[in-house]
Specification:
Blueprint: E1 2-13, E2 20-32, E3 37-41, H1 48-55, E4 63-68, E5 71-72, H2 77-82, E6 84-87, H3 99-109, H4 114-127, H5 143-154, E7 161-165, H6 173-190, E8 193-198, H7 201-207, E9 210-215, E10 218-223, H8 225-232, H9 237-245, H10 248-262
Parallel strand pairs: 3-8, 3-9, 6-7, 7-8
Antiparallel strand pairs: 1-2, 1-4, 4-5, 9-10
Helix pairs in contact: 3-4, 3-5, 8-9
The structure holds adenosine-5'-triphosphate.
The site of adenosine-5'-triphosphate (ATP) has 13 residues, from strand 1, strand 2 and helix 1.
């Protein structure tokens, strides 16, 4: 289980007179439960990646609290990370190593024996449907093959919680479907708590048990897709998302810009 409470993060950009502060996250709170897939849905720049980087202990929050299975990430980062698998945007794999070697190497970094990490690579290869890839060097892998190898690597220590930042970025339709299947298996067969960020409605509708809508660095709504549809009185999830994530002025100015573009 992952709990995020009142998170905030500012960045300083530039120096001297040019300096300005960007409030990237300004009051994000959510809970992600075990055996559920939770989607962080928000427009570009909403603060999703920054939030997930803080959960992964890659960035310290200015204020707020994050707990992974009750362990405070700020106070006990190593213990929290032992219970967390992180698939970030940077999916760097070692190209000269095979998929198995990449996975085992990460297992060793987590303190696993070579034999245990290799056995886990075999299990994950079945779950992620990537057995034929295991003994191939990752050099030349397709985007989908890379993503699966990186996901297996992130899961080598069998963490109960998984966070993924825009995992379907750059994947074609078949690779996307295959990733969705893998995430469902991890939820249903292994009871994992899975959180991923996206701005793709379809992804959320097809995969998520719970949705957290983030806009302007804040949580603006939380619930199942049917609950968010009911709350907004919309039939279409895209319409529901737009009404939750954008203000009246934003919607009006966007509509005006679109009509000018057409005329
Ligand atoms: N290191 C940084 N320095 C300055 N500003 C940053 C930094 N990282 C993020 N930001 C700003 O914080 C805001 C939130 O960014 P973030 O990447 O978290 O959004 P996002 O929801 O993941 O967006 P996207 O869907 O476009 O990836 C943006 O305005 C971004 O420009």
């Amino acid at each position: 289980m992952i709990e995020v409470q009142d998170l905030a993060k500012r960045f300083q950009q530039g120096r001297g007179r040019q300096a300005r502060t960007v409030l990237a996250v300004d009051g994000v709170s959510w809970q992600a439960r075990d055996g559920r897939i939770t989607g962080l849905l928000g427009p570009n720049g909403a603060g999703k990646t920054t939030t997930l980087r803080m959960v992964a202990a890659l960035l310290p929050p200015d204020t707020g609290r994050i707990a992974v299975d009750g362990i405070d990430v700020a106070q006990q980062p190593m213990q929290a990370l032992a219970r967390l698998g992180v698939l970030s945007d940077a999916r760097g794999l070692y190209p000269r190593l095979t998929a198995r070697e990449n996975i085992v190497y990460y297992g060793r970094l987590h303190g696993m024996s070579r034999a245990a990490a290799s056995a886990r690579a075999d299990t994950l290869a079945k779950v992620l449907d990537m057995a034929p890839l295991l003994e191939r060097r990752t050099d030349g892998f397709s985007q989908g093959e890379r993503m699966k190898t990186a996901l297996a690597r992130a899961l080598v220590h069998n963490p109960p919680n998984i966070i993924l930042d825009e995992p379907t970025n750059g994947l074609d339709v078949l690779a996307t479907r295959s990733l969705r299947e893998a995430l469902r298996r991890l939820r249903d067969d292994e009871g994992k708590c899975i959180v991923f960020s996206t701005h793709i409605m379809q992804e959320v509708e097809r995969l998520c048990d719970e949705v957290v809508v983030i806009a302007h660095g804040r949580t603006v709504a939380e619930g199942t897709v049917p609950a968010l549809l009911a709350r907004t009185g919309e039939k279409d999830f895209e319409e529901a998302f737009v009404s939750l994530a954008f203000s009246e002025e934003e919607r009006t100015s966007q509509a005006l810009a679109a009509s000018r573009g057409l005329s």
